[in-house]
Give the backbone structure.
Amino acid sequence: MKEFVLASFNIGAAGKMYNGYDERDLSAIADFIGKCGADVVSMQEVDIGCKRSKGVDMVSYISGKAGYPYTHFITIRPFQDGLYGTAIISRYPIVDKKTINYKVKVAKQGTSCGYAVIDFDGDLVTVFNTHLSCESDEGNLDTMSCLNDELRAYYNERGGFLCCGDFNTSPAVVSGNITWVSYANKDLYTYADRSIDNVLYTKEFEVYDVHTLDATTDMISDHNMLICKVKVL
């Protein structure tokens, strides 16, 4: 396979439709993802076993209902007797995966990233996922600097990648601090009137047909899904 569809989606911990977690909300998210047409979906604001979401494993629920058999949960921090983080779900086999804890200086939120190496019919593609800090500009830049270091180290050792995420800042700020990659989202609103969700990628890929899918009108999430096509060069 030389081409696939990639999505990044902040699911809002399945708590936006009913002003707090409700299984109907999680079901709507799974249905939305199942119909989006993506081969790989990187999700942010994901709970496993947390009190606020009644102990549900959101990764297992969404992946099972939406038809994505391969998963990687990336812990950001323990939360309410469970774990809070991000996740990558895939219709194609994940053959390697890792969670990376940032060496932060000031940030308390968004303190990890992770990646999955996905086998697209013989083409191995690495997809990162992250959710940078929203606690302050200083915290955001702290986590962004850590992400930059991890992406650079990976690229120097293993080569090309794509990096999805909720960056909690504008594309201009991201591109001004991670200067050596390309950016899928230049001006598409994904959260209210802000363009904070993005896909970063290296020269080994072509990314095109970048657009959003509306998830906010029906409050499936407070973010729209960012979705694009990817060609392996």
About this structure: The chain is about 20% helix and 40% strand. The first strand starts at residue 3 and ends at 10. Residues 3-232 form a domain with the Deoxyribonuclease I; Chain A fold (CATH 3.60.10.10). The chain has a mean pLDDT of 97.
